[in-house]
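hey so i finally got around to running the thing on that chain from the lab meeting. sorry it took forever, my laptop kept dying and i had to restart like 3 times. anyway pasting the input first so we r on the same page abt which one it is
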Amino acid sequence: MKKTSALRALAAGVLAAAVLALLPAQAAQATDSTTWVQRNLVGIGYLASGGVDGNYGPQTTAAVRSFQHDNGLDEDGVYGGRTELALHNKVAEVQRVAGSGADGAYGDGTTSAVSTWQHSHNLSNDGIAGPATMNAMGVARTVQITAQWKFPAHGWSVSGQFGCLDQIYNHESGWKVYATNPSSGAYGIPQSLPGDKMASAGSDWRTNPATQLQWGLDYIQSRYGSPCNAWSFWQSHNWY
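ok and heres what got predicted. didnt touch it at all, straight out
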């Protein structure tokens, strides 16, 4: 590993630990340079390759907003601590599959590794992990896809049940990872009450949508049997 790559990996690890310590009580300030924000966004297909210019202008803001939308974050276009953590984690997921070392920084080594992986899987080998490559890698691009991929393990079909789950989570949290009910304190995408119930699905329940969704789907299965049964109950009671 080159010295610069090692430093990037160390910085990513320190950053993740620091952000986890602060979230969700406050959104820590991001530490990535604008260039690295842009390189990561290019790497996973949210920003055109020519967008790496060091200028946090309208193009980068729109790309950040699109990433936030897909990952259950407030869509303000601002690159704060929550967005930084989510972006590093998503890049690291791609890196783990491509075998490039999961430091959360989409540099030249990651581009090369993804290109090699794409070639070996009969995909266009541009080195960019866009929607098709992510899908082939088994890396969920959106929180909705994350939920859908968990359906078979619960015995549900996406075509028959996802529409009901979508209704529940749109009403409960808007699919937002950090959604907090100011009255009850219910937290996360499934609005767990109290939020720390989700610790049974993983210690990263405060920040990881996959952990929140695992707990949420397990809850629906144990209490209602299926999302459509849960949605039917919600329509009668305005809670589930």
